[in-house]
Amino acid sequence: MKRPSLKDATELLGVIAIVMSLMAVTYELRQTQSALIASTYQARATDATVELNFIADSEFLLPILIATDYGADTDAVASLTTEDRGRLFNWLRARMIDWDNEYYQYTKGYLTDDFFQTTTKPSVEKYASRWRALGIGESRSEFSDFVDSVLAEQAER
What we know:
This protein is an all-alpha fold. It contains 6 helices and no strands. α5 crosses α6. The longest helix is centred in the N-terminal third of the chain and has 52 residues. The N and C termini lie far apart (75 Å).
């Protein structure tokens, strides 16, 4: 049996070092992804808290949302003043932008399937027809296609 040369031993050590480096990089990438997901969740929670507190304290927006059932009551929406209609328009547009962002995060793997299925998708289902009724369109075609599919599913039920 031939004894391994110094060259063979060095090459073997090099290959082992490369494999271990790749394992370390894979571990670091998983850690980074976990941190990004946690950071994304924290940002959403903070945004939601700030928005809910703002609405609760708003002497302008809260009465509009209550009077129109958050834009669902089309007769009440039609009777709004131009200024109040603008407030509702901007609130629904902000919601649409937020859910578009969550859909984007979901498609990129930064939003858990559980959160998306139990929070984002039902919210889009509930509010998309309201923002569309006010003439608010989705700016990204991917999100618009998603909204179309959600509304089609809803219509089938």
